[in-house]
Design goal:
two-stranded antiparallel ribbon
Length: 164
């Protein structure tokens, strides 16, 4: 007799039951390909596997860095002064983002904590995989927490944990 194993997705497939007007589709993949089309799915892949930038020894989500290459060293110097060379605080100051801020202008699902946590868990999963792939010898933490670094509500953050 053969064994059958199912390896669950990072997303709970039952969340489809909380999505209004999704009863016509058989699963989340079908819903995604219909609702997002290929351009939206490519953009989502970029969000889940973001471009990273390393400035000196700091790792940042490039989208959050908001600084061109020429100004990067000046910006790092300012952050080092502001955070007294605390690497974790510097990286968190850039890499912390409120989950709600990913959806500026979107209100349809903002009151559904289950849907928001599914999205947040997916971000954490894929960002962890991304940094582990790029920096296998570094202990880079990607996690969720509330009200981090001046952001409101559920937040995602990323920083390197340095052994002391």
């Amino acid at each position: 007799m053969e064994n059958i194993k199912i390896f669950e997705s990072v997303i709970n497939s039952n969340v489809i039951n909380e999505i209004e007007d999704a009863n016509w589709c058989t699963d989340l993949a079908q819903y995604a390909t219909c609702k997002c089309k290929i351009d939206g799915l490519i953009a989502a892949a970029y969000l889940f596997c973001p471009q990273l930038i390393q400035v000196k020894d700091y790792i940042f989500i490039e989208q959050f860095w908001n600084c061109n290459k020429e100004a990067s060293f000046e910006n790092i110097s300012e952050l080092e002064e502001q955070y007294h060379n605390d690497k974790k605080a510097i990286e968190m100051s850039v890499n912390t983002w409120s989950i709600g801020d990913f959806f500026v202008g979107e209100s349809k699902f903002m009151d559904n904590d289950n849907i928001l946590i599914q999205f947040a868990n997916a971000i954490v999963y894929f960002w962890k995989s991304r940094v582990k792939d790029l920096f296998p010898d570094r202990k880079i933490v990607v996690k969720l927490d509330n009200d981090l670094m001046g952001e409101l509500g559920l937040c995602v953050t990323m920083y390197e944990e340095i052994a002391e």
